[in-house]
Amino acid sequence: MKNRLLFALSFAGILAGSAAAFYFSITKPALPPVFNPVSDPYVSGIYAEGIVESVQTSGENINVYPEVAGTVKEILVAEGQEVRKGTPLVLIDDSIQRAATEQQKSAAQASHAMLEELRAEPRKENLEVAEAQVVSAQAALKTAEDELDKQTAAYQIDPRSISKDALDSAINAAAVAKANLEVAQRQRDLTKAGAWIFDIRNQERQYNALEKSYLSSNALLSKYTLRAPTDGVVLSITTIVGNYVSPQGSYESYSQVMNPVLVLGTPQANLHVRCYVDEILVPRLPPPSKIKAQMSIRGSDVKIPLDYVRVQPYVSPKIELSDERQERVDVRVLPIIFKVEKPKTVNFYPGELVDVYIGE
Questions:
Q1: CA distance 131 to 203
Q2: How far is 167 from 206, CA to CA, in rounded Å?
Q3: What local confidence, expressed as pLDDT, does residue 136 receive?
Q4: Over the stretch 69-123, which tens digit does the pLDDT of each residue have?
Q5: Is the pTM here over 0.85, yes or no?
Q6: Which listed residue, of 22, 170, 327, 346, carries a Cα 20 to 30 Å from 320's Cα?
Q7: Average pLDDT, rounded, for the chain
Q8: Which structural domains are found in the chain, ordered by start?
């Protein structure tokens, strides 16, 4: 009985193993792809990886960096917003620079007031005082001369009536009064002449120096407001209120690199596609007038024709299409720019990677 049970179990195991082997040996049909892989639409085409960017007559998107460092006080625009040239974009805390500018402005104004004072001389009141001092000195001289005449006449009549010492004192008093009159007259003439030309020139130079210092400080103050350098669309804002920014940009904590504070592009009805052709394929490129190209959007079956715009005539080392610039590569590429009209039924944006085929 025991042997029969073992034989039955063994036979059941053999059947189960055979069934499992048969089941797992069946080839399952492959799942269809989510979208068709990119295919060459030309008999012989050149493949290149491209990136969508806004339309620029030269260069790439506009990266906006501040010229001064500080804490972001306010962000005045939003991503996707169209802006005009000169529109304020970001305010950086300018409290210290504003105080310094106001101080330099006050110093320049004080220097200018001093210059105007020198140019306005002589002051009427000062001139009247000088004239009064001359009149007083003339009266003092007349009194001294009259006293001297009396002393002299008495001495001539009777030398014993006036001492020699008193006569000498009268003579000295008249001489002092005459000298005082000359001083008062020259002081009046100096007051009437006004400020010395060299004093005016010196004050002019001091005022010009302070005024230029104020203008320089005021120009620096204006740098604390980032403005749109041209008409465009805000593509990206990489900072928030309270962040510290500098001429190197804004620190991005995830990638740990410095990014531009804002990225501006042009309106997105028409976009450019910048593709990079491997240097070994450059000899196969047709003449510019015969270049045809087509791009495929990754993740879809959409294919869109491209219009040739220009070649950026500089072969440079190939890099990843990101802000990382630390890799070492040996391949060099030639940038070619195409124009693409954005279909109403398809969404793609600046910064998106696409596949491009260029017909030979």
A1: 28
A2: 56
A3: 92
A4: 999 999 999 998 999 999 999 999 999 999 999 999 999 999 999 999 999 888 8
A5: no
A6: 346
A7: 85
A8: 45-55+266-359 (2.40.30.170), 63-92+224-265 (2.40.50.100), 100-118+200-221 (no CATH), 122-194 (1.10.287)
